[in-house]
Write a structure and sequence with these properties.
Spermidine Synthase, Chain: A, domain 2, binds S-adenosylmethionine, alpha/beta, Rossmann fold, 2 domains
Length: 295
Amino acid sequence: MPKTEHWQWYVEEFSPTETHHHALEETYYAGRTKFQSVAVVRSATFGKMLILDGDTQSSQGDERIYHETLVHPALAGAGDRSRVLILGGGEGATLREVLRCAEVQACTMVDIDGEVVDLSKRFLAEWGANAWNDKRANVIIGDALKFLRESKETFGAIISDLTEPLPDSPSNPLFNADVFRDIKARLADGGVYVLQASTAAFHNIALHAKMARTLRTFFRYVRSFSTHVPAFDTEWAFLACSDKIDLAALNPAQIDAYVSKLNGYNTFYDAETHRRLFSLPIFVRRALAEEGDVF
Ligand code: SAM
């Protein structure tokens, strides 16, 4: 192995005082689209990685942990799996996971950045795999905000796989009460809205708690769940929102029946994993119960 000084490094800066250094074997692409900076690299540890605005989006080594967690609890619980909407989801792996469910008749994915989608198809082909060519997939390049405002369709599951809502991110306008109301209006009866919802780390949980607090004003059940994603170097959190389905209380038999019917095999998620995802430590439960600001 070459000595560390010969490596090129991708340094993910979590805060001015916290960084994770990834040694790089190759940089496939580095540039800027109309919406964000993009890099596609290969790290020595995690394989290929997509980085947007300096934030790791997913890695070849562990993307299944993130994408199975984002998609399958929601689909296992949804009353109607026939129509699914993905907000964002550029790499195509969320689409791939949704389409592994044969009950899904149509999946619309709306990502604002056609260049990210094209780069993903070119360099990260394993992420989207056959999903891009699946007849059930309807990939729209456009602003999810506009889609939500203009669409009259309803969906049994809406899956938000957007970038972090940092002030200058194109995802930022999708995190406010008006949009949460629009999303709710696009959910079918018994529908589930699930979102990737920032970190639930001991030292960094404020944004997640703020999302949960805001969403609780719209939905009867707002459940937080999380898992460690090694390439993100942190505990990654999600929120599941519904008026009818409490994902934290899903029956293990229902989960395993759902998983057993998926095309191909899961590497992460089943009924046992579900218990672990929704089993929250005290500090998370405290943070979620606290009063505070909302979007
Ligand atoms: N796993 C990710 C993470 O860790 O944040 C999110 C994955 S995915 C790459 C995020 C996608 O959201 C990007 O492809 C980006 O183009 C898309 N996006 C951001 N703002 C958007 C908007 N307003 N409408 C639609 N897509 C948007």
